[in-house]
Amino acid sequence: MTEQLAISTLTLQHRILNDWAADPWAEVRPLIDGVDVLKEVHPDGVALSCRYWRGPAAGWPLAVTEEPRRIMITEPTCTAGCCGALYVTMRREGDRVIWDSWENTSNITALPAAIRFDAAQYEAELARAAADRSWEEPLDTIARLLEQALAESGWFERWGCVLTSVSPRREEPDIPAELTSPEGVDVEFQEAQESGGRTDHYEYELFVTRDQSVEEQVRRLAASILADDPRKTAERRDY
To answer: DSSP assignment of the chain, as one string?
Structure first.
């Protein structure tokens, strides 16, 4: 009699990091049969940010095809090159999704065995997580909608620039207010790369309030950027 291999269930959970400065967006944490298996083998690892879950389904971090794909599934808050990361190879075989060939470059430790998922459940969970907004705080919603408005406007391209990042800026716990920036949104952009030339980088440090709706604040913040050449109104950064 052929042994039936166990089929696991994937659940993706958004979580805002305590050390949000490492990535201000929420991580999308994979749970396997309701258990955070990855934490057991890479306790300091952070799952990939929800900012990578935007756009076409083929580009989502955990998307699979018949061609095996090795991905970094959790990383440290510094860099993988500094403190190591957890990798897995994933692929689709018929009506199954398989995760195997685990590798932990931060430590020699017991790693999960091959994990198998029902492909229909797996792909439905990826789609659900990509569309999930229930975890968002107003600040996250403002940042996401502002990024969408700026990208669709084509404003930065008009001035020979490229929008590189829009992210929430949270209040830092246990730090006096006078030593930290108030809650808001950071918008970063740069001049389009020219061969062999210097590329200037810029940033807006925008502030949010508690007495306006999300929609009003998105309109206000977008209008403040779209009023003039952004290179004149943003702060230039040296990197």
So the answer is: -PPPPP-B-EEEEEE--SSGGG-SSPEEEEEETTB-HHHHH-TT-EEPBGGGG-S-GGGSTT---SS-EEEEEEE-SS-HHHH--EEEEEEEETTEEEEEEEEESS--------EEEEHHHHHHHHHHHHH--TT--HHHHHHHHHHHHHHHHTHHHHTTEEEEEEEEEPPPTTS-GGGSPPSEEEEEEEEPP-TTS---EEEEEEE--SSS-HHHHHHHHHHHHHTS-HHHHSEEE--
pLDDT in tens, 148-186: 999 999 999 999 999 999 999 987 665 555 555 688 999
Reported pTM: 0.85
Nearest to 164 by CA among 155, 151, 183: 151
Higher-scoring residue by pLDDT: 39, 207: 207
Angle formed at CA 143 by CA 138 and CA 148, multiple of 5 degrees: 125
